[in-house]
Amino acid sequence: MKRGEPRKYDPTFKGPIEKRGCTDIVCCILFIICVLAYIAVGILAWSQGDPRKAIYPTDSRGQFCGQAGTPLEKKPLVFYFNILKCASPMVLLEFQCPTTQMCVEKCPEKYMTLLTAYNIPKDFEYYKNFCQEGVTNSMGVANILKNGLCPAVLIPSKSFTKRCFPSLGLKNGKVTVGGQEQVNDGEGNTIPAEDLLYGVKNATVVIEARQVVMKIFEDYTQSWYWILIGLAIAMVVSLLFIVLLRFLAAIMVWIVVALVIVVIGYGIFHCYMEYASLKGEPGANVTIQELGFQTDFAVYLQLRQTWLAFMIILAIVEVIIILLLIFLRKRILIAIALIKEASRAIGYVMCSLFYPLFTFLLLALVIAYWAVTAVFLSTSNQPIYKVFNESACEYSRQTCNPANYSDSPEKKACPDSQCLFAFYGGETPYHKYLIVLQFYNVFLFFWCANFVIALGQMTLAGAFASYYWAFSKPGDIPTFPVFSSLGRSLRYHTGTLAFGSLILSIVQLIRVLLEYLDHKLKGAQNKFAKFLLCCLKCCFWCLEKIIKFLNRNAYIMVAIYGKNFCTAAKDAFFLLLRNLLRVAVLDKVTDFLLFLGKLLVVGLVGVFAFFFFSGRVKAFENTAPNLHYYWVPILTVVIGSYLIASGFFSVYSMCVDTLFLCFCEDLERNDGSPARPYYMSASLGEVLWKDKSGDADSSLQHPSSWSQPEEDQA
């Protein structure tokens, strides 16, 4: 009784039960309410958000530079009145230079001061392009500077990520601007041009991430069609592999094993050759730690330590795979027979191979909705203005209103202060709870994504269970097993799918919160807190894996018997517990072989993508696009190939798991006699007869003595 009550013979049982009722109705209602609330959050975010804040740079008033349909449409660049103010440490805290910023058509091209330009009409007209509106020739230099209407000095600049930065050069080993080693700082002082480097450096810290993102975006625009070709190749290879597995299971499995070992072996050889070729090269012996983080990842490929690390990792993986193959060689032969049976099942239910496309489509919709909502939520803040000053001021860094700042108490108390745009935020209840809405967006993303995956698992489980429990194959198999199973899952078990995916989503959200806390506590010196956080992350990672395993088997039992989630999970757990050794050594070995198949597809496509995009092969030099980071399309193709291969191989994996549970149920229900014949095929019976690891089959006779299903007798 500790392992549950085994199934008893039931002459009326013919596979997935047709007459069933709705399960877990409360969770179904809760899921529908939460989805409707999720839609409401999306509508609210779309009404409040403005993605332009993430695309266009802004001036000191929070206006978008270069936005079409606005007065600033022809002024796409941001100009800093005094770039030296960007050297302030406050820039790194508030992500805003404490100087006036304005939108300009193009950056300054020559060096001049306001004092010299004011006396030359032609120069002053040019100078006014970098001044605020309303500046006239009769205002006087002192009044213009006092009111902050113009910069004190113009420095030759170049556009960099839509911002004007001083055009710095080198002359006799010294930094120059416009050919000059000394420049005016705008306050009547002469400073070395080298001092501008600090302002440029801090200003670029704020936008460095955007620069990397823009380069990656440009790489995608240059290589998107090649990426699609790579993904199409991955799809064709995966489909071809599945088809060949249908007819040549044993041969394909051993080919996969051999090719995986060869591909990893070549990777080790390639890493060694790169490691050896860098010997004696200048800077090749610099360590990764000494180099620090670089946005151009190609720099790391010039280090010997990088290739040594790759070589060690691949060598460890190679040794582990070889040792597993040696110790599990007998189990692999049994697992091959199980894969053959899965191939026969898929042969009768061919439309199951295309079901992952439906899952991909639903997941794409969920991901797109989450991403768009996240962008609109993150850009739904209001512009916040703060007081920026040069001298001591009690109102420094406090919020202000730019509309009437000239007559405000802050301006009177601090005459040299300015009310400048600082960042996007807000004080309304909506803005205060934005972080809550973001977490809700993440939570519903997990829930909906897990629901879609669970729907696919239950649908495929129902289809393959219909195959297994059909005594006369294919005569007793339903006409459209996948569509019939999908209909049953949605009609009767939406609540069960929601229940299982809810439990998994809660664990995943806790893992996200732990990662968030870990990020926040990175600077903390409390080692016990770090240790505790690390333990929690490890425990919840394990818990997520366990829940995924239990959910998967629970969905199989629901697809067959139509019970609620808790009952199905309990039945599946005890059934697996009664066949514990067989689960450990047979089912998992099959998963390992299928994983090697995915590795092979990803490895072949990844190697092809590497040689194509990196230009290592002369035949592709003129065809491959010119990229900032060639690892961007390679990584995209590799990840996409893995997802595609996982989609196709997930059908096999789900088929194996379903057949395995049905197989265990069949053993408990029947005994192979004419009165109680097994539903399993003779080939699957051979698997069981060879596998003596489980106690359920201790009295099992050779399959030749069984009463066989009609197809096997034929």
TrEMBL record:
Ranges annotated as spanning the membrane:
21-46, 224-244, 251-269, 307-328, 348-372, 444-471, 592-615, 627-652
Q: Which InterPro entries does the UniProt entry name for this protein?
A: Choline_transptr-like (IPR007603)
Which cellular component, as a GO term, is one annotated location? plasma membrane
Bilayer topology reads: Multi-pass membrane protein
Hey, which family's this protein in? Belongs to the CTL (choline transporter-like) family.
Q: Which domain of life is it from?
A: Eukaryota
The answer to whether keyword Iron applies is no
GO molecular function list: antiporter activity
- Matching Pfam families: Choline_transpo
Q: Which organism is it from?
A: Oryzias melastigma (Marine medaka)
What is the protein named? Choline transporter-like protein
**Location of the protein in the cell:** Cell membrane; Mitochondrion outer membrane
Specify where the region named Disordered lies, as residue ranges.
693-714
Show the catalytic activity: choline(out) + n H(+)(in) = choline(in) + n H(+)(out); ethanolamine(out) + n H(+)(in) = ethanolamine(in) + n H(+)(out)
User: Which segments show compositional bias classed as Polar residues?
Assistant: 696-708
Coiled-coil-forming residues are none
Source species taxonomy: Eukaryota, Metazoa, Chordata, Craniata, Vertebrata
Q: Which UniProt keywords apply?
A: Antiport, Cell membrane, Glycoprotein, Membrane, Mitochondrion, Mitochondrion outer membrane, Phosphoprotein, Transmembrane, Transmembrane helix, Transport
Function recorded in the entry: Choline transporter.
